[in-house]
């Protein structure tokens, strides 16, 4: 059965403008954050018979899964978009059950450009072989040493640099010199089969969470865990519980937006510091004439001097939209410059690939702002060279009362929405065993 307009609008309403719930004064578990991980943790805890309070700093649920329907008048995922590892992803059966429109999309390059020059087919084929080789070398290196993934690069040709863009900024949200080769083995951003969702991944997550009571606009300010149980201070009062699950990003934790009493132990601070947020940002560009030059769902990479690379997903679901992606250091640079400059960069890149005639079809552009989002401060976490053990340190509970979950803690498919869901579920099951 196809998803109805009422269902779609209901899910979007849950994600964007759900009304805040009153906070119970005492529960078994407080869940901090109503993104994919927090919603799944709360859902599983309730299944296991635990009382739960979920608090969320934003005015909506979904976290970094957010479908925007106002900018372009059709669904656009500002955050996660692909159902990675779709055959095992916990959201896949829900998407099928609820009638979402799914399209298989495993990235392969139909177009490769070096600045304004299109690479011939044989160079694209060469890039595929180089990609397989680099992937194998990083994995081999990571099994031996916790060093930068860039050490696995053999050459520095244009083709090699383009391939490194896919493995680093476009997949891991950091450049390869800032990525642990050992951590690379755990990253799950390119685990086929991958599915895109026409109605939006954020819509799907919001529909999953719409029946879970969440107190919106309620950031956790301080967690006190030195005595019995935990106390979580918020602007709306203090919650008392036997335990809490924190699903905040490592960016939020590193910025000390949540204070702890007693202070975090050194091993936990080291884990947070070793998992800084990377950045993958999108530059969606709307054109009045869809599907010129490239077909729907085709992929194009433009490799520039100075790592100013951009990847385009062309015309997803035959919409008149080109979705540009920038990652790593360059994404941070564009985020600091602002939306206008980011959109101009995207338009200039389109012009170099599609020709100057593209300008006359341009309608509007936008830019995702996860870098400045106070409750994200980045896209997802990547382990620094020498810090491959940071994920395990982040997962490790404190005093059997304070637990951590999220994409950075995912047991597999880290850096993904599905991985965050699994982390929430598994953490909830662990908490349920301890909290009686």
Structure overview:
- By secondary structure, the chain is α/β, with parallel strands linked by helices.
- It has two domains: about 5-105 and about 195-275 and about 375-435, FAD/NAD(P)-binding domain (3-Layer(bba) Sandwich), CATH 3.50.50.60; about 110-190 and about 280-365, Polyamine Oxidase, Chain A, domain 2 (Alpha-Beta Complex), CATH 3.90.660.
- About 30% of the residues lie in helices and about 20% in strands.
- The chain has 13 helices and 22 strands.
- The protein has helices at about 5-15, 35-45, 90-95, 120-145, 160-165, 180-185, 200-210, 250-255, 265-275, 330-335, 340-355, 390-395, 415-435; strands spanning about 25-30, 50-55, 65-70, 75, 80-85, 100-105, 110-115, 115-120, 195, 215, 220-225, 230-235, 235-245, 260, 275-280, 280-285, 300-305, 310-315, 320-325, 360-365, 380, 400-405.
- Strands 1, 2, 10, 11, 12, 13, 14 and 22 form an eight-stranded mixed sheet that branches. Strands 8-7-17-18-19-16-20 form a seven-stranded mixed sheet, sandwiched between helices. It has a three-stranded antiparallel sheet with strand order 5-9-6.
- Helix 2 links the parallel strand 1 (about 25-30) and strand 2 (about 50-55).
- Helix 1 packs across helix 7, helix 2 (about 35-45) packs parallel to helix 13 (about 415-435) and helix 4 crosses helix 5 (about 160-165).
- The two termini are about 40 Å apart.
- The mean pLDDT is about 90.
């Amino acid at each position: 059965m196809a998803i109805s307009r009422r269902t779609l609008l209901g899910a979007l309403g849950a994600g964007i403008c759900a009304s805040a719930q009153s906070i119970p004064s005492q529960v078994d578990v407080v869940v901090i954050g109503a993104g994919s991980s927090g919603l799944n943790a709360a859902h599983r805890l309730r299944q296991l018979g635990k009382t739960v309070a979920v608090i969320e700093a934003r005015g909506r649920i979904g976290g970094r899964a957010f479908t925007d329907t106002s900018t372009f008048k059709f669904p656009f995922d500002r955050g996660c978009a692909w159902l990675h590892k779709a055959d095992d992803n916990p959201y896949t059966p829900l998407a099928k059950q609820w009638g979402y429109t799914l399209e298989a999309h495993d990235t392969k390059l139909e177009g490769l450009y070096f600045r304004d020059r299109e690479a011939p087919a044989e160079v694209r084929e060469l890039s595929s072989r180089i990609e397989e080789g680099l992937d194998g070398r990083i994995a081999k290196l990571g099994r031996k040493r916790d060093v930068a993934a860039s050490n696995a690069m053999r050459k520095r040709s244009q083709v090699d640099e383009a391939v490194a863009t896919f493995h680093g900024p476009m997949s891991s949200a950091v450049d390869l010199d800032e990525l642990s080769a050992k951590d690379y083995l755990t990253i799950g951003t390119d685990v086929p089969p991958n599915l895109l969702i026409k109605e939006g991944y954020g819509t799907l997550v919001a529909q999953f969470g719409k029946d879970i009571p969440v107190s919106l606009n309620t950031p956790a300010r301080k967690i006190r865990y030195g005595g019995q149980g935990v106390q979580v201070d918020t602007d709306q009062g203090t919650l008392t519980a036997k335990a809490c699950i924190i699903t905040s990003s490592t960016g939020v934790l590193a910025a000390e937006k949540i204070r702890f009493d007693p202070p975090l132990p050194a091993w936990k601070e080291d884990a947070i510091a070793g998992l800084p947020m990377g950045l993958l940002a999108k530059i969606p560009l709307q054109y009045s004439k869809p599907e010129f030059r490239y077909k729907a769902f085709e992929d194009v990479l433009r490799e520039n001097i100075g790592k100013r690379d951009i990847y385009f997903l062309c015309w997803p679901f035959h919409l008149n939209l080109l979705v540009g992606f920038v990652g790593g250091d360059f994404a941070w640079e564009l985020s600091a410059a602002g939306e206008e400059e980011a959109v101009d960069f995207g338009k200039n890149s389109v012009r170099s690939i599609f020709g100057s005639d593209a300008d006359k079809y341009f309608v509007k552009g936008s830019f995702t702002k996860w870098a400045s989002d106070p409750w994200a401060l980045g896209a997802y976490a990547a382990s620094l060279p020498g810090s491959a053990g940071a994920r395990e340190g982040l997962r490790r509970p404190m005093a059997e009362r304070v637990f951590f979950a999220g994409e950075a803690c995912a047991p597999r498919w880290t850096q993904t929405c599905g991985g965050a869901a699994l982390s929430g579920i598994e953490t909830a099951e662990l908490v349920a065993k301890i909290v009686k």
